[in-house]
Design a protein that fits this description.
The chain is an alpha/beta fold. It has helices at about 5-20, 35-45, 55-60, 75-90, 105-115, 125-135, 145-150, 155-165, 200-215, 220-245, 250-260, 265-270; strands spanning about 25-30, 45-50, 65-70, 95, 120-125, 170-175, 180, 185-190, 275. α9 crosses α10. The protein starts with a helix and ends with a strand. The model has no long low-confidence stretch (mean pLDDT about 95).
Length: about 280
């Protein structure tokens, strides 16, 4: 029987394994966060590559350990689909980030098409983005989560569980409480800092890190590990900013720093995870 301690210990072990295995993660992500995604993967010990052209995306992903597709990069949709078909054929994990799905029917259409054509291992987004995918309906304009969507934790769990069962994937919903489910069980993560919502890229970085964790293990545990690790890094970065009386740009720098300095014992010490009970 899995306990919250076993989840936290496994998250710590997977983080250490990334530093030894150095998985190569192919990220097709939006231009706003390409550099952030590359740096967070490097900080964790993984290796990033970003090939966005249709003539090379599939070939590049064939040599990688995981594929991350960020739908903030809809201009590169054809490259994402070609890479995903190659990754699917090789049984590599595919991670999808439905950036901005709450405000774009075009993105929702392409996400549905993507799910129809390849097997997605994990989908990660904020509450409003994920609800837009679950319901195939608009929720917000832009990329921020609506507070009312985040508050309905039980409603999110029900819809995420149904979606996960239907598609055989892991759903990771970010928010004040992060929700992770594979359709059969759910865990809730309480780690994080409010400053994470004040910078561009915290969500995209989390999705990129999911690529590294899923490269080692396609599981709900791998999905839960990322919000624990990122949340702890955010908490520690906030403390650094408080000491320095510094702002949000320093926070981003410190958060990436903390990922590069994080150790197994830190994850075990600071991890805040709950197993949801019906």
């Amino acid at each position: 029987m899995e306990t919250k301690i076993s989840y936290i210990k496994k998250a710590a072990e997977l983080f250490s394994q990334i530093q030894k295995a150095k998985p190569l993660v192919h990220c097709i992500t939006n231009g706003v966060t390409v550099n952030d995604c590359a740096n967070i993967l490097l900080a964790a010990g993984a290796r990033p590559t970003m090939a966005h052209h249709t003539k090379e995306a599939a070939e590049v992903t064939a040599g990688c350990d995981a594929l991350v597709c960020n739908f903030g990069a809809t201009d590169d949709y054809e490259a994402m689909l070609l890479a995903a078909k190659e990754a699917d054929a090789l049984a590599h994990p595919i991670i999808l980030d439905p950036v901005g799905a709450g405000g774009s029917s075009f993105r929702r259409k392409k996400i549905r098409e993507f799910f129809d054509k390849v097997h997605v291992s994990c989908i990660r987004g904020n509450a409003s983005e994920m609800l837009a995918v679950f319901r195939d309906a608009g929720t917000v304009v832009g990329v921020d989560a609506r507070e009312s969507d985040e508050k309905d934790v039980e409603g999110l769990i029900i819809q995420a569980s149904e979606f996960a069962r239907e598609h055989g994937c892991v759903c990771v919903i970010s928010g004040r409480t992060d929700i992770i489910t594979d359709g059969n069980k759910e865990v809730l993560i309480k780690n994080g800092s409010p400053l994470m919502s004040k910078i561009t890229g915290s969500g995209c970085m989390s999705t990129a890190l999911l690529g590294a964790f899923f490269a080692l293990e396609k599981s709900m545990t791998a999905g839960a590990a990322v919000p624990v690790v990122m949340g702890i890094a955010g908490e520690l970065a906030e403390k650094e900013c408080q000491k320095e009386h510094s702002g949000t740009m320093s926070f981003k720098m410190h958060m990436i720093d903390r990922i590069s300095l994080l150790e197994e014992n830190d994850i075990i010490k600071y991890g805040k995870l709950e197993i949801n009970k019906d």
